[in-house]
Write a structure and sequence with these properties.
The chain has about 100 residues and is mainly beta. It contains no helices and 6 strands.
């Protein structure tokens, strides 16, 4: 799996990326940048958004969402495309 910044996806097929994921996506937290409101996730396939499994940086809708998450956590999250970037709209530690 490669690394990819969410704003650098111009070469991918974005046919279905105008919407939000309809179900939680499994992932693992690789890095947290609270000061910039970004999180690096190694995630499974995002079928609703037509994306394969990979590791990439996401913006978060609300930086407060990062307060209960730490590197190494297994998480479930939802994402949507906003202003050309993928944004995490919900995230929780997997039970």
């Amino acid at each position: 799996m490669g690394n990819m910044e969410s704003g650098e996806m111009g070469k991918m097929d974005h046919g279905a990326m105008g919407q939000q994921s309809s179900s939680m996506i499994p992932g693992e937290v690789k890095k947290i940048q609270k000061d910039t409101g970004k999180i690096t996730l190694k995630h499974g396939p995002m079928k609703d958004l037509n994306m394969p499994a990979m590791t990439m940086v996401f913006r978060v809708k609300d930086p407060a969402m990062l307060s209960n998450i730490k590197v190494g956590d297994q998480v479930n999250f939802m994402a949507e495309k906003a202003n050309g970037a993928l944004v995490v709209t919900a995230i929780e530690v997997a039970k």
